[in-house]
C-alpha cells in the first residue's frame, strides 16, 4: 500500500487552508488603532497598529498546507513579509503554495520558502531565531523543539508564538449519550491515523458507562477501513515514518506490560516495511503507562476508568500540556463546571470537531503561546505604537 494522508482528508485540508486566506483578507480591513481619552488640553494621544516586520514560520508535516496559511495569511494581512521553513518530511506542499503565490503575482520577497534536509533543520531554525532581521517566530510542532526555539529567540528578543503538543483528555461522564461519545471519540482519535495535535489522546470514562462505552467504541473502530490513501474507501492510512511507528509499538507494549488489555488492533498490518498500524483500543489503562503520560501521536486509544467528576479533572489536568479537551455529558451544570476547570485552551462539549478559521486556536501551560485563527490571530503580527502630540495649546 502507498503511505500518506487519506485523499479525502487531504482535500479537506486544502479547503481549510483556503479558509484562512479568505478570513484574514477581511481582517486586514479591521486593524483598528485607538484614539485615547484626552486628559490634558495641550496633548493628544493615539495608538497605531503596525506590522512587526519579517516573520519566520516553521511548520509541521501533519498539515503541511493549512499550517502555512494559518500563519502566512494574518502576517500578510498585517503587512509583514514571511520566510517559511516547512518540515523536511513534507516540503512539496510549501513549494506548491509558493508557486500559487507567484501565479497570483504577490510581490517578490513577500512570501519566501526555504527547504532543508533533516540534517540541516536545526541550523535553519537557528538562523531564523538569531537573525536580527527576523522579528517574529511562529512555530507549530513538538514541545521539545518549541522550547528550543523560544530559548534561541531570546538573544534577539523576538515575538514568539508557539502551538505545541497536546495529549488531550476526552471525558465521558455517566450522563453522556454513549453512542455519540463513542462516535466522536473514533473521529477524533483516528483522524490522520491519530497524528493531529488535538486528537483525543486519553479517553476517560466514568465507571457506570465504562463497559457500554467500550463496546460501542470497539464496534465503530473495527468498522474503520485502513487502505491505500488514494482509495475512496480509505478511513485511515499510514503513520509518517519509522520513528512514529516505533513509538506506537513501544506505547502499546508498555501498556500491555503494565496491565492494559487490547480491545481491538494492537499490531502492524504487514511486516514488509509498511507504516500502517491497526486502529487500536487499550482498556484498563493507568497513569503510569506511556500511552497516558505521553502524546502517542498514532492510532492508539487508551481508555482509563474514573469514579467522580473531581477524579476526572485531576486526571485530565495532570499533564504539563493544555491544548484541547473534550467533555461528553448531558448535565448542563456539569458541562459549565468542567469546561471552566479544564486546564486547556480549547474545549469541546459533546463535540470533537471544534476548530475552523473563525476561532482562536492555541493552548496553555506547555502547549504554547499565543493564538492562531480568529480576529485574535492577527495580533501576533502587529506592534502597538503610541503617538503623543504636544504643544496644542490654544493661541
UniProtKB/TrEMBL annotation:
Residues 4-387 form the Aldehyde dehydrogenase domain. Belongs to the aldehyde dehydrogenase family. It comes from the Eukaryota. Keywords: Oxidoreductase. InterPro entries: Ald_DH/histidinol_DH, Ald_DH_C, Ald_DH_CS_CYS, Ald_DH_CS_GLU, Ald_DH_N, Aldehyde_DH_dom, Aldehyde_DH_Superfamily. It comes from Hydra vulgaris (Hydra). The active site is at residue 163. Its EC number is 1.2.1.24. It holds the Pfam family Aldedh. This is Succinate-semialdehyde dehydrogenase, mitochondrial.
